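Subject: for your reference before the review

Hello V.,

The reviewers asked for a structural picture of the protein, and I figured it would be easier to keep everything in one thread rather than splitting it across files. Below is the amino acid sequence we used in the manuscript, unchanged from the supplementary table.
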Amino acid sequence: MAIILGVDPGLTRCGFGVINTTKTEALAFGMFQSQPNSDPRDRVGAIAQELKKLVLEHKPEMIALERVFAQANLRSVMGVAQVSGALMSIAYEANIPLQFFTPSEVKAAVTGNGRATKDQVALMVTRMLNLEHTPKPADVADALAVALCASKRGVNVGTSAQQQWVAAAKKASRRLG
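And here is what came back from the structure prediction:
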């Protein structure tokens, strides 16, 4: 696997990071934004168009997404789910595998601690990708962390033994609910 697009989905702020796993380097990263007072169709559509441009430009071999987790703010969860759905459609159209990772999986893959702070994640992302500056805001660092997580824990990434271990862990996780 060489190119992975990591996304920290959100309707107001959607972080993205494209990495080359062969060289462990960031090819592109940033954030797409939409205005909260705009029509939801326009917000999702505009972010989806930007994500599609990224896919066409960088031709990732995998797309990695941070999984929606229950928050107190239903509107925030809906926005994350809407952007995730749009990205799932883009992945389907381009025939690119897409994998979800929980926030704790991402933190553990990048820092070794599933309960790491956002600052710790950002610091490790900066070090692992040899960046001159810490990616800001946190949505951008999180998206790069998601891509790094996929490079370490994604299905069809790593050695044959690592792939088998990841597949077994994911199967066990699905059985447990």
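For the response letter, the relevant points are probably these. The mean pLDDT is 90. The beta strands are 3-8, 13-20, 25-33, 62-66, 98-101.

Happy to draft the paragraph if you're swamped.

O.
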